[in-house]
Specification:
single chain, 410 residues, mainly beta, 5-stranded antiparallel beta sheet, 32 strands, globular
Length: 410
């Protein structure tokens, strides 16, 4: 998403101070002495300008215990804002090129850029390569990045997160090279010994995480066989992978396609992580969610999985983004909790995240682009263990979204 869709200029400069949120509602909350205490900080990356001639910014918000959103002072901050991730008291963003910035987060949620690295210098080849994803491991000590160009091999480069947030690279550790391009998004095992990513021509790819933070490719489809067909059409293309932090269960969403079947097939299955990192299909765990998945994430406890995308089973049913929560049972199966939450303001949710206070964050696909200005709806839900309810002030209108990071409060 983000700058690959459009570049723009704001309607008026005054919008900068509360760009990307429902400013009227946020201002009212800021003046309300009864506003609940902050439970998380949210950082939204965005841009102004035209492709190859743009400026990056980050806006910051506090999230109250009731899920309401209000802008933080001192924003926007100028700097790389793509692919935002939060690690401890740092936020990292890239320029969808080769630079990665470190932003140090203060207790009040404010950010200041404290370092910058150009990752291209670590790749054996650098023609037309760009950063695909920033992946914090479970320890928060390593930021695994992926450089690729769409027509060349990928390089998986581990950057050590120093105590001050500076990113460093050990030149004696050659980057892992992919035989073909990976998506760039990794899910790490709970014990941090393995990592998984989807690769459409090969299936779910398994990597061993070494003590120095590097990743070594182990295997592909054999490490995670697709589930049996539920529709008479095979599913063989992994769309997304999520591992629970508290168990050895890993969930994979599977699709059909030219590599396995021309018919529509979409299903979800749970896998058990073996001692060698391979993923064993859990019998009778396959099912077809009511939401076609575009993003999914376990909550910090590892007990609940949010599946976000669009309403439907094989095809999206019109302009209807959707999200549903599933509970991970002790036997590894997933059962739905509450009903499907659908909205008709956007066609799909492309990013879903959690904080530690039971809030679910769902970002809508930019569907309204006028004069190169693209808008997205940002929803915050409260989850009580049984139901999702819309938080006060949601949805919030965001413009030219480039990145989203949720910094959880202890």
């Amino acid at each position: 998403m983000g700058r690959h869709f459009c570049k723009s200029f704001p309607f008026v400069t005054v919008l900068l101070s509360c760009f990307m949120a429902s400013c009227v509602a946020a201002a009212a909350q800021a003046n309300d002495p009864g506003t609940p205490a902050t439970s998380a900080y949210v950082y939204v990356g965005w841009y102004l300008g035209q492709w190859l001639n743009f400026s990056d910014y980050i806006s910051g918000y506090s999230v109250a215990s009731d899920g309401s959103l209000q802008p933080l002072t001192g924003f926007p901050v100028s700097g790389p804002s793509g692919g935002l991730v939060s690690i401890r008291n740092f936020v990292f963003g890239d320029d969808v090129g080769n630079d990665i910035a470190t932003y140090t987060r203060s207790p009040d949620g404010s950010l200041r850029e404290t370092s910058m690295v150009n990752e291209n210098q670590y790749a054996p080849q650098d023609y037309d390569m760009g950063i695909y994803a920033l992946n914090p491991d479970r320890s928060g000590q390593t930021l695994t990045t992926v450089l690729s160009c769409g027509s060349c091999d990928s390089y998986i480069i581990p950057l050590t997160v120093e105590s001050n947030g500076q990113l460093s690279f050990d030149a004696d550790l050659p980057p892992s090279q992919g035989a073909a391009k990976w998506s760039g998004v990794f899910s790490f095992a709970p014990d941090n010994r393995f990592a998984y990513t989807e690769f459409w021509q090969e299936g779910a790819s398994e990597f061993r995480r070494n003590s120095d933070g590097t990743l070594t490719y182990v295997g592909g489809t054999a490490s995670a066989p697709p589930p049996p067909s539920l529709f008479g059409a095979d599913a063989c293309l992994p769309g997304d992978i999520a591992s629970s932090v508290s168990t050895r269960y890993v969930g994979i969403a599977w699709w059909s396609g030219i590599y396995c079947s021309d018919g529509p097939a979409y299903e979800f299955a749970t896998y058990t992580e073996s001692a060698d990192g391979s993923l064993q299909l859990l019998p009778n765990s396959a099912f077809t969610p009511q939401v076609i998945e575009w993003s999914m994430a376990f909550d910090p406890s590892g007990q609940y999985l949010a599946i976000a995308g669009c309403a439907g089973q094989n095809y999206c049913s019109g302009r209807s983004a959707a999200v549903q929560i599933y509970k991970l049972q002790i036997n590894g199966t997933l059962t739905p909790v509450g009903g499907v939450q659908t909205v008709n303001t956007t066609d799909e949710f492309t990013n879903v995240q959690w904080d530690s206070a039971g809030h679910v964050y769902a970002l809508g696909n930019p569907v309204n682009c006028t004069h190169n200005i693209c808008t997205s709806d940002f929803y915050i839900y409260n989850f009580d263990g049984q139901n999702l309810t819309l938080a006060p002030g949601s949805p919030h209108l965001l413009t030219n979204v480039d990145g989203l990071a949720v910094a959880r409060q202890p």
